[in-house]
Amino acid sequence: MRTTSQPASASNGATRRRVTRALTVAAATGAALALWIVTGPVAGIELTVDRAGATAEVGPAAVAFAAVVSGLAGWALLAVLERSVRRSKMVWTSIALIVLVLSLVGPLAQARTGSATAVLAGLHLLTGTIIIAGMASSAVPARPAHSTAEETRRVAGQ
């Protein structure tokens, strides 16, 4: 028995969005770890960076952590924008692309070798691309300028 006042289609839409977003975070994390494995342990590229004057190695935990945190942060921002901005997908995608470009400063400034720079930048680009594509595909469509708060909640499945 249904205890909410939402139409079944709104509830199904919200569930689909959550599943798509969770799978996006998982896919970005898995892809980043796969690239790390291929370039690090398999190809032998040492992924080292300068951190506060010391050398640190970028390992699988750091790669997975960064991908999961990035994906969850993107998900949270998209959810907030869907509730507060009429064209949330466009706004979110613009912000995500800016953040992705800015994230490249880390590998470019801190990697110790050219190959480490290339791999770390590749990790950022791969993870960011998957997150941006997956989250954007799950975004609530832009609502008309005259929509009411009730219509917005219905479309967002809340």
Task: Give a topology summary.
Blueprint: H1 8-42, E1 48-51, E2 54-57, H2 60-84, H3 88-103, H4 105-110, H5 114-137, H6 149-156
Antiparallel strand pairs: 1-2
Helix pairs in contact: 1-2, 1-5, 2-3, 2-5, 3-5
- Number of DSSP strand runs: 2
Biggest sheet strand order reads 1-2
Instruction: Please count the helical segments.
Output: 6
The profile of the biggest β sheet is: 2 strands, antiparallel
| Broad structural category | mainly alpha
Helix content: over 70%
Counting structural domains, the number is 1
Q: What is the typical, i.e. mean, pLDDT?
A: 90
How many whole angstroms does the radius of gyration measure?
19 Å
Order of helices and strands: HEEHHHHH
Q: In percent, how much strand structure appears in the residues?
A: 5-15%
Low-confidence stretches: none
Give the CA-CA distance, first to last residue.
18 Å
Q: What shape does the CA trace take?
A: elongated
List the quaternary state of the chains.
single chain
Quick recap of the structure?
The protein is mainly alpha-helical. It is built from six helices and two strands.
Please explain how this structure is put together.
- The chain has about 160 residues and is mainly α.
- The protein is built from six helices and two strands, in the order H-E-E-H-H-H-H-H.
- The chain has one domain.
- About 70% of the residues lie in helices and about 5% in strands.
- Strands 1-2 form a two-stranded antiparallel ribbon.
